[in-house]
């Protein structure tokens, strides 16, 4: 199919998928902030979910010691000062960091926040039976000690040149020890009330929680900043899709804020022209990518389906063959996907780690140029040919047919359609599947359709990290992080890719202080992931959300929760 025809096909597909509406309305009130996340919240405990929507929802209530602002700068939050070597907060040997809580902090129930809560949070997440999603935040932590009611010392087993993993950013907030005391270890998932109604220090408290639907919040009467928040109530609605979410802010005015608008730019421009709202955009580290399953997803395997085995005996029957996944990557026109489906909010990329600039590898740019002829030649040279003339190549007698899944989203379905056509041109047949986002990104252990289960050959989604140092993010690709039944499929290594050499680089970075050397290690890790076929990078995504024209104070943030400064949001008259 020629590029002009592909563009027309994409636009037709998108227009067809954007004709629906949300089917509900939320009354606008001066003191109510109406937020729409088309991936519905399933829990407000970020430690038990890898989904961004749960972390964002939880950030209205639960807060870390420090976080990142809209510029990617670390700023104090429940403390008055960021500890450094210069101010004595980080030890000279880089083996410990001391945090001092701000004076007078209280939980929303009026009880004091103490260093014991910080210690408990560490114990909660690092319990071997907890299945904590943020475990990589506590890499190399050997102890967290309460020196007094406001002072906490975190000790590391190795020199920690970047000691800001624990309790920094929306993924690693402080939880109340008194509330979660009976929720440690294997019982963590059973604490429904605690996970749905956490007590926090943030500007809001939970008043009503309906999993995978809607969460209602009220202003925290004990919030530490006088006169804030401005909005006394938040309705946090989930569900629908990106297009209907955008329409609900930009055209109908039903909502004040809509998140993660993966919508074809031409359609977004039409919506903005309605005059109800505007787009807010920022670039961080989000990459839309295709994960390659390194295990066998055959349903006939039963409990061993997509389960990693250390001896490699349950590997994928053909996707670990370099010529195959390289050809799949070569066949993709990333520039077309970025320009036609993402507009100004997308850049073609081959990397997992595209930002900040110091960490962006220059070593994988060959894939930025589509090469169908080269991909066919690569497969032919490896003897991977179509022996029976049905248009599908075989490897060791196995037809190259893949199940390609992602969440239900018009841009993702358009991307799937393009890639399916390109792969067909090199003799690889793709069956396309899309799953409701609430299910795909959910953590229901009974569901076979979650991205963590990965019961497909390849799957596509976006992920990122919420800070300026990538150590914890890159640690998610270690062998120990492989998602599987032993960790309730909450492991971050979705591809089930295991490389001891990569693990060694992660360990080395954890002991390296020079920022230049850390950048070199991050690039080396990125290159290993890309060049060893763990994933196929597609688009460096800008984060696009929509706000109503009356909403003020929003500072779009790609480095932390988008709702990080919601206490400062107001409405104009």
Could you please describe the fold and organization of this structure?
With 573 residues, the chain is of the alpha+beta class. It has two domains: 276 residues, Periplasmic binding protein-like II (D-Maltodextrin-Binding Protein, domain 2, 3-Layer(aba) Sandwich), CATH 3.40.190; 259 residues, Dipeptide-binding Protein, domain 3 (Roll), CATH 3.10.105. 24% of the residues lie in helices and 19% in strands. The protein is built from 15 helices and 20 strands. The strands form five sheets. Strands 1, 7, 8, 9, 10, 11, 12, 15, 16, 17 and 18 form an eleven-stranded mixed sheet that branches. Strands 4-6-5 form a three-stranded antiparallel sheet, covered by helices on one side. The longest helix has 17 residues.
């Amino acid at each position: 199919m020629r590029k002009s025809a592909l563009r027309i096909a994409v636009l037709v597909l998108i227009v067809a998928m954007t004709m629906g509406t949300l089917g509900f309305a939320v009354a606008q009130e001066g003191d109510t902030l109406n937020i729409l996340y088309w991936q519905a919240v399933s829990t407000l405990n970020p430690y038990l979910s890898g989904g961004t929507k749960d972390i964002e929802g939880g950030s209205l209530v639960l807060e870390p010691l420090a976080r990142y602002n809209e510029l990617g700068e670390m700023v104090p939050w429940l403390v008055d000062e960021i500890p450094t070597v210069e101010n004595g907060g980080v030890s000279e040997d880089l083996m410990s960091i001391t945090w001092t809580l701000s004076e007078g902090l209280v939980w929303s129930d009026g009880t004091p926040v103490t260093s014991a809560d910080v210690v408990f949070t560490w114990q909660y997440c690092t319990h071997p039976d907890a299945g904590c999603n943020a475990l990589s935040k506590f890499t190399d932590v050997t102890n967290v000690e309460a020196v007094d009611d406001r002072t906490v010392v975190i000790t590391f087993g190795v020199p920690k040149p970047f000691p800001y993993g624990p309790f920094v950013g929306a993924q690693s907030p402080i939880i109340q020890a008194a509330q979660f005391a009976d929720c440690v270890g294997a019982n963590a998932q059973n604490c429904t009330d605690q996970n749905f109604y956490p007590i926090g220090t943030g500007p809001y408290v939970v008043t009503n929680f309906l999993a995978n639907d809607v969460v209602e919040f009220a202003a925290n009467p004990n919030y530490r900043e006088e006169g804030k928040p401005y909005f006394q109530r938040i309705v946090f609605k989930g569900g629908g899709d990106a297009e209907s979410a955008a329409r609900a802010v930009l055209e109908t005015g039903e909502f004040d804020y809509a998140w993660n608008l993966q919508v074809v730019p031409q359609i977004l421009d039409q919506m903005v022209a309605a005059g109800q709202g505007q787009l807010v955009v920022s670039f961080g580290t989000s990459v839309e990518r295709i994960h390659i399953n390194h295990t066998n997803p055959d349903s006939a395997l039963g409990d061993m389906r997509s389960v990693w085995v250390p001896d490699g005996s349950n590997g994928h029957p053909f996707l670990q063959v370099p010529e195959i996944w390289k050809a799949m990557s070569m066949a993709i026109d990333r520039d077309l996907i970025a320009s036609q489906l993402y507009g100004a909010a997308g850049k073609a990329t081959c990397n997992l780690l595209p930002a900040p600039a110091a960490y962006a590898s220059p070593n994988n740019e060959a894939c930025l140029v589509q090469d169908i002829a080269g991909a066919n030649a690569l497969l032919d040279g490896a003897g991977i040919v179509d022996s029976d003339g049905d248009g599908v190549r075989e490897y060791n007698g196995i037809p190259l047919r893949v199940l390609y899944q992602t969440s239900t989203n018009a841009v993702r379905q358009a991307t799937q359609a393009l890639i399916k056509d390109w792969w067909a041109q090199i003799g690889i047949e793709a069956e396309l599947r899309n799953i409701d986002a609430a299910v795909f990104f959910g953590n229901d252990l009974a569901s076979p359709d979650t991205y963590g289960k990965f019961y497909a050959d390849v799957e596509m989604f976006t992920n990122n990290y919420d800070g300026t140092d990538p150590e914890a993010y890159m640690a998610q690709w270690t062998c120990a992080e492989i998602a599987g039944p032993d960790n309730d499929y909450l492991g971050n290594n979705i591809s089930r890719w295991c490389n001891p050499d990569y693990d060694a680089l992660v360990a080395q970075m954890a002991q390296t202080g020079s920022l230049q050397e850390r950048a070199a290690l991050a690039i080396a890790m990125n290159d290993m992931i890309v060049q060893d076929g763990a994933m196929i990078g597609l688009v460096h995504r800008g984060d696009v959300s929509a706000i109503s024209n009356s909403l003020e104070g929003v500072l779009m943030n790609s480095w932390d929760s988008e709702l990080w400064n919601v206490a400062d949001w107001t409405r104009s008259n």
